[in-house]
């Protein structure tokens, strides 16, 4: 890799996040007026369109343009799909559905890494873009056909329920809204953002630089690197499918949200940070691979859990907007981490030293984020302060008789 290529590659990788956070913020507020069905269809269609520029003009500007559009379309994807999902499940039944939703990303990596490698090596790099475009368009059409909004958390007309069910949040039951300043500046939301920020830092580093690191520093073949990335995704998938359902069980047994869903976020990011910090100082191949799995896969549970903790202190009517804000700020590392890593590689005496600096910096950022999440996330306390004690989403209303 030449001196300039590290920074160039970092710019291409970071371009994906140029509009990622901004679009997440804008679409989050739009979700109060536009159905999740329309928003998710539009995003999926744009994913397909984003694959086209580089097929027309094979150049760095075209690749950057496609990635900017892709980032703008994908920025709201996680928060809006989670917002749509929460309309189908009550608060104490969201762990497993959330984990299944987020695990789609890990499953996608598990499948896509070897498939895309096979397409590129067997049919050329353009084939990968074509297949991704077709897949995105097919999914968008299927979603338009089958996607609908669920019954939980829908806005009720004023006076529709003068006597809300016992245990239902006062603000959410009456369709009231709270000032966004109060919603965003409580410890639970800030801690959830911190957890997402730390996890997203590792995720962005993984997407942009882990394949390059495996090939240049560990001398892996493209197929070997793809296999390891799939294995890390499989590890993430196991965590996603096991931890959030356990959270639901703990909540139904009376364990507070702070310890059932808040603390695991902070611990996961902190442990991943420690594994990241140890990477440059471990020589054994097996230990190195194990640390890579923990550093780049162990944080996966944060993504469903940070939405669960944030939703506990937000009225359902404002959930989409707050999810958009949480996602926008929590995913900012995608704009910074890839470029900063490329800069560190270019400025270091050797690539090995550059990766050492990048991993230590990443570990420091992630450790701080993990500790903030561990200390700050206290849903029950913050719900009381906001007047949402005992908050749950409104139960679905029975259909009107004919």
Could you characterize the architecture of this molecule?
- The protein has 19 helices and no strands.
- It is globular.
- The protein has helices spanning 3-15, 20-30, 36-50, 53-56, 60-74, 77-86, 95-123, 125-146, 170-173, 180-184, 187-216, 222-252, 257-278, 285-297, 302-311, 319-330, 333-347, 351-376, 379-385.
- Helix 1 runs antiparallel to helix 17 (333-347).
- The termini are far apart.
- It has one domain (3-151, 173-385): Growth Hormone, Chain: A (Up-down Bundle), CATH 1.20.1250.20.
- By secondary structure, the chain is mainly alpha-helical.
- The model is unreliable at 155-174 and 390-402 (pLDDT under 50).
Share in helix: over 70%
- CATH architecture, by name, is Up-down Bundle
User: Which structural class best describes the helix and strand composition?
Assistant: mainly alpha
Please tally the β strands and state the result. 0
Which runs of at least 5 residues are low in confidence (pLDDT < 50)? Answer: 155-174, 390-402
Order of helices and strands: HHHHHHHHHHHHHHHHHHH
Identify the CATH homologous superfamily. MFS general substrate transporter like domains
Radius of gyration: 21 Å
Q: State the CATH class.
A: Mainly Alpha
Report the sheet-strand fraction: under 5%
């Amino acid at each position: 890799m030449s001196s300039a290529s590290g920074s160039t590659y970092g710019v291409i990788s970071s371009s994906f996040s140029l509009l990622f956070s901004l679009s997440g913020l804008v679409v989050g507020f739009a979700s109060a007026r536009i159905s999740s069905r329309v928003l998710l269809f539009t995003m999926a269609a744009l994913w397909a369109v984003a694959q086209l520029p580089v097929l027309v003009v094979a150049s760095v500007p075209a690749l950057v343009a496609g990635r900017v559009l892709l980032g703008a379309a994908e920025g709201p994807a996680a928060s809006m799909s989670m917002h749509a999902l929460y309309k189908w499940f009550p608060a104490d039944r969201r762990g497993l559905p959330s984990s299944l939703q987020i695990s789609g990303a890990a499953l996608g990596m598990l499948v896509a890494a070897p498939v895309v490698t096979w397409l590129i090596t067997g049919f050329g790099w353009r084939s990968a873009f074509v297949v991704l475009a077709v897949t995105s368009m097919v999914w968008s059409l299927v979603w338009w056909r089958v996607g609908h909004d669920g019954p939980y958390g829908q806005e009720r007309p004023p006076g529709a329920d003068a006597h809300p069910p016992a245990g239902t949040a006062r603000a959410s039951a009456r369709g009231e809204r709270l000032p966004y300043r109060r919603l965003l500046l409580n410890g639970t939301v800030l801690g959830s953002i911190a957890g997402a920020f730390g996890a997203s830092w590792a995720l962005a580093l993984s997407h942009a630089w882990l394949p390059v690191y495996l090939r240049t520093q560990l001398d892996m073949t493209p197929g070997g690197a793809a296999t390891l990335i799939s294995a890390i995704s499989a590890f993430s998938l196991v965590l996603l499918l096991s931890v959030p359902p356990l959270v639901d069980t703990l909540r139904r047994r009376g364990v507070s949200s702070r310890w059932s869903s808040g603390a695991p976020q902070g611990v996961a990011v902190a442990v991943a940070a420690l594994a990241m910090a140890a990477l440059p100082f471990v020589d054994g191949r097996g230990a190195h691979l194990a640390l890579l799995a923990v550093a780049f896969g162990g944080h996966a549970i944060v993504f469903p859990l940070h939405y669960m903790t944030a939703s506990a202190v937000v009225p359902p009517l404002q959930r989409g907007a707050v999810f958009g804000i949480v996602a926008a700020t929590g995913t900012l590392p995608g704009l910074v981490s890839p470029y900063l890593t490329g800069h560190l590689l270019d400025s270091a005496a050797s690539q090995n030293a550059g990766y050492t600096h990048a991993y230590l910096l990443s570990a420091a950022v992630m450790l701080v984020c993990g500790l903030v999440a561990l200390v700050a996330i206290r849903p029950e306390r913050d719900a009381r302060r906001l007047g949402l004690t005992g908050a749950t989403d409104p139960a679905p209303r029975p259909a009107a008789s004919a």
